[in-house]
Amino acid sequence: MNYNWDWGVFFKSTGVGDETYLDWYITGLGWTIAIAICAWIIALLLGSVLGVMRTVPNRLVSGIATAYVELFRNVPLLVQLFIWYFLVPDLLPEGLQEWFKQDLNPTTSALISVVVCLGLFTAARVCEQVRTGIQALPRGQESAARAMGFSLPQIYTNVLLPQAYRIIIPPLTSEFLNVFKNSSVASLIGLMELLAQTKQTAEFSANLFEAFTLATLIYFTLNMSLMLLMRMVEKKVAVPGLISVGGK
Amino acid sequence: MDMDFTGIIPALPALWNGMVMTLQLMVMGIVGGIVLGTILALMRLSSSKLMSRIAGAYVNYFRSIPLLLVITWFYLAVPFVLRWITGEDTPVGAFTSCVVAFMMFEAAYFCEIVRAGVQAISKGQMGAAQALGMTYGQTMRLIILPQAFRKMTPLLLQQSIILFQDTSLVYTVGLVDFLNSARASGDIIGRSNEFLVFAGVMYFLISFSASWLVKRLQKRITV
User: Fold this and answer.
1) Cβ–Cβ of B168/A202 closer than 8 Å?
2) Which residue of B has its CA nearest to A188?
């Protein structure tokens, strides 16, 4: 069997409405970005709280955060997604369950599941970065703040966290990029994000190599541009006196 | 919602078969990934600019796309590619294409681990080996790599645990690994939630205890 190369395929009509295949990719990319950003906001907020909890001098509080991290890091993402999508709605109280399963349209309920899933999954990773960042600071910082009469919440919000965030930008960047890549699991519960649109294009047009090459290029470009952006941010906010930014 | 886990017992043989599939995927992915990753790492470290560029591009490429994309793509593309190479229809199952996908994808990650491991070996080792008249190949094979692999064992194992979890993504091509066998067995008797919980608990127990062992090993190695 021969394969018909046709790089112009993306400008052809899909036969569904008056959309071209390129439109599908744009829609898909939009979903991917929406999922990733929503999930990232959850991950960053929850991860920061958990990261602080892990460094607090209270065994119960830090124990809870540790348990969270171990739980979410040792169960595969896909299993977590299925749990949020299939199992958790069944556990909701009657009224809420009906709303989630019947009143919401399928796309919205899938979107909620995948955002919550990815957010909580990534929070465990962000937590570890935040903890590392806080612990990497010289102990004198905390002692000095204490000596000046700061309360524990003040020490975290005014002294430790602002510095910690600036140190951990590189590992946080790679987690941020991971959210984009991981959002592709949403295709398995029927959300038409980038990968799902790619699969659909490959099936509809039979130009599978072109379809996947374009998807790869989009992911690659997305990754590279976000990385460059974060590198600029990193340089801008680097803590003076630390050797985190090489050469300067 | 009532939970009834008794249905799992008769399904255990099916689940075990799924677990065997998961472990096969993992082991083949690790072995192939480490071999290819080591080759890539040596290319990246080689003095030839071209070699190091190729390996660098490979690593960059695979690290910026989702594993799920690689699995899906390979599943659709491997039969085509084989047909071009061999000129005839060569039926390849989902299993083979998934193994190839894991090997090539993980190689990018293993490459970075091996590279860091080799770079952590002190320069004097290289110099001493060369002073003894060893060739580059001999130096790498007999002096540098054995030491590097010892140092990076914990990282390699950590990556293997990640791969163990990632094998669940073969769900997308319908391969019956542990997760998929749990989904299938649960659906038959209408107890999919219980089987999902069971699968989650099993994945957790295995990854958690494996990571715990790796942490202990790490402490013993870094004395």
Assistant:
1) no
2) B172
A190 sits in the region (left: phi over 0; alpha: psi -120 to 50; else beta) called left
Quote the DSSP letter at residue A76: -
User: SS3 of B123, please?
Assistant: helix
First to last CA, chain A: 58
Residue spans of alpha helices (H) in A1-159: 21-55, 59-73, 77-82, 88-91, 94-98, 106-136, 139-147, 152-154
What the block records as the tokens of B181 is 């066998």
How far is Cα B45 from Cα B42, in angstroms, rounded to an integer?
5
Residue type, A9: V
Q: Do B208 and A91 touch (CB under 8 A)?
A: no
Q: How many residues does chain A have?
A: 248
Q: Provide the shortest C-alpha distance from residue A225 to chain B (in Å).
A: 11
Q: Per the structure block, which two tokens stand in for A15? A: 């036969």
Distance CA A68, CA A80 (A): 13
Nearest CA in chain A to B80: A3
The residues, any chain, with a CB within 8 Å of residue B123's CB and separated by 6 or more, are: none
Could you give the ipTM of this predicted complex?
0.90
Token pair for residue B187? 């659906």
Tens of pLDDT, residues A168-214: 998 999 999 999 999 999 999 989 999 999 998 888 887 888 899 99
